[in-house]
Amino acid sequence: MITTTNIIRLLAALPAAAAAASKPFDIKDLSLREVGARNTLDWRIWLEQDGEPISFWHDIPLYPDPEDKSIIHYYTEIPRWTDGKIETKRDEPLNPIFHDDKDDLPRFVYSVWPHKTYPFNYGSIPQTWEDKNHDHPFTGFPGDNDPVDIFDISELPPSYTGQVKKVKVLGALAMIDDEATDWKVIAIDVEDPVASKIDSVEDLDKYRPGVRQQMYDWFIYYKVVKGSGTNTIMGDGYQNATFAQQVLSESHDYWLDLMKGKSKPGKIVRNQTSNARFCSTYIPKEETTEAFKLPTESKILPAAEKPEEYNWWYYLDPENNWEQIKV
Q1: Strand locations in 38-136, DSSP E?
Q2: Fewer CB under 10 Å: which end of the chain, C or N?
Q3: Residues paired with 189 in a beta bridge
Q4: What is the dihedral of CA 60, 64, 67, 72, to 10 degrees?
Q5: For the segment 257-271, what is each residue's pLDDT rounded down to a tens digit?
Q6: Peptide bond into 137 cis (omega under 30)
Q7: What is the 8-class DSSP label of residue 28?
Q8: Taking the model in full, what pTM does it have?
C-alpha cells in the first residue's frame, strides 16, 4: 500500500536512487554478509552491494544485457558436490539465503550413485517468479511460488554459496513438485572453455558426452531414498533454449506484476533497493541494515555436524529399492 510515509521517504531518496540507477550493475561490487553456523536453521547470508545489504532475488538484474536473452545472471545456493538444501528465504527482508528445514531440522540430499550429492552448481534466477496464481500452459500446474531454479553444468571450479554468475541458457526441464510447476533451467558459465561452442543441450553430447542424460537422471531419482519416489518431468525430456528463454521472459513478467502489486504476494517480502518506481517496496540500500535490524557485519561460526546418514552412498536397483554403503 502506498502511504504518505512511503511517499515522503521516496521523495527524500530520489537523488540517491537516481545515482544508483545510473550506475551499471557490476558483479565486482558485490560481497556477502554471513552470520551463524552452516547446517543450522539460524544461519543466513545476505548479499551486499558496495558494502550495503540488497536482495538476491529482487535487486540482481535478470539480464546482464537486456538485448541478449540468451545470457542471464543467477546466484548459487548449493555449490557442486555439497548436500545442504540451501534456498532463498521468501518471507524475510531482502530474502537472504538460508538452510531449508523439515520438521524443524535442516534438510540435506542423499548421494545416489553415481552422483556425490548435487552434481552441479544449483541456484535461483533473480527477478523471476513462478506465479502460484497461474497454471502454466505447458504443464497445467501453478507455479511453486519461488524464483526459477537453475543448474549450472560448467566444468569450472565449484561456485560458492551466494556467488553471482553470468551463464548461457541451454534449455529447461519442466519438473512437477507437489503438484506445482518447478522449472529447472540448464545453463553453462560464460567463462567455461567450451561455452562459446555450446548453444543447446544437444551440443553437450559433443563437448561433454553423457552430461545431458546424467543430469536428467539425477532429477528423476534424487528423492527416491527419502521415500518420495521418482520425480515427474513433463514434455519428454529437455525443452530447447528458445523455449527456456520464453519461460524466463514470462516468469520475469510475473515478477514485475508481483513487485507492482498486481499479484498477491502472500508471505513474500518484496523489499528492494534498485528501483524507486516500485515505491511501496523501495528502500535505499544505505538504510537496510538499520531498517531491518540486520547484523552489521559477518560473524561466521564453525559448521554443525550433519547427520551420519548423509555420509553414505545409496545404490538403486531396477525397482528403485536402495542399498546403503558408507562413502
Answers
A1: 44-49, 52-54, 71-78, 86-88, 97-99, 101-102, 105-106, 111-112, 121-125
A2: N
A3: 167
A4: -80
A5: 999 999 999 999 999
A6: no
A7: G
A8: 0.93
